[in-house]
């Protein structure tokens, strides 16, 4: 688990941290805000119509101007450019698109590349300790100690 960055990493104005000494990866991942799937059931015509809808939803500039990046940064660069040039998106949406465009070249191509083994279980452990703190059952210090103990034990398996 890499939770201690300290002074070995340099922060950049774009929100990125430089790679650790001896590392080539930046350690930043951008994940999709949505996953759009097409069912494998139904007729061939249903599948074709579904694909047309997804294509429209993802690539049509007018459709995306209506959505105004409210569901995340579009994956199509032409759509992003149109949103940035329009007056329909919020300032927050435009800042988010610009951020993604800035950090994108320094991110991992594979979102799973930086996930440790047992990532899902570690998130569950964190959530359990978080809830205990929020309900006043344990102190934040005890939760931190318990979280690292349990997470490291899980990673050591």
User: Taking all residues together, what is the mean pLDDT?
Assistant: 82
Count of helix runs = 6
Residue share in helices?
Answer: 40-55%
Structural class label: mainly alpha
What is the end-to-end distance? 13 Å
What overall form do the CA principal axes indicate? extended
Gyration radius from CA atoms, angstroms:
21 Å
- Beta-strand portion reads under 5%
Structure description:
The protein has 157 residues and is mainly alpha-helical. Among the domains are: 44-109, no CATH class; 116-157. It has 6 helices and no strands. It has helices spanning 44-59, 61-67, 77-85, 91-103, 119-134, 140-156. Helix 5 (119-134) runs antiparallel to helix 6 (140-156). The longest helix has 17 residues, at 140-156. The radius of gyration is 21 Å and the shape is extended. It starts with 43 loop residues before the first helix and ends with a helix.
SSE map:
Layout: H1 44-59, H2 61-67, H3 77-85, H4 91-103, H5 119-134, H6 140-156
Question: In brief, what are we looking at here?
Answer:
50% of the residues lie in helices and 0% in strands. The chain has six helices and no strands.
Which tags fit this structure?
single chain, 157 residues, mainly alpha, 50% helix, disordered N terminus
